[in-house]
């Protein structure tokens, strides 16, 4: 894993994950192409806002790493959101 952030206190960072570890987490995100996994402290609010906006969202899953859900954009690219 490589984390890119402007400083240690930054609220936004890009984290490059090992594909094998992402597959291991089984978050429903394909590693055939690059993927984005978002992290938020406002997990339920984001899930409900996307769902209310008619965005395709998957079920909330509870994994060892915490709660996650997937959503798709208009081109059917899927992304994951995890709770922090």
Automatic annotation (TrEMBL):
Keyword Zinc: no
GO molecular function: lactoylglutathione lyase activity
Swiss-Prot/TrEMBL keywords: Lyase
Enzyme class: lyase
Enzyme Commission code(s) on record: 4.4.1.5
InterPro entries in alphabetical order: Glyas_Bleomycin-R_OHBP_Dase
Protein name: Putative glyoxalase
Organism this protein belongs to: Staphylococcus saprophyticus
Gene that specifies this protein: glx
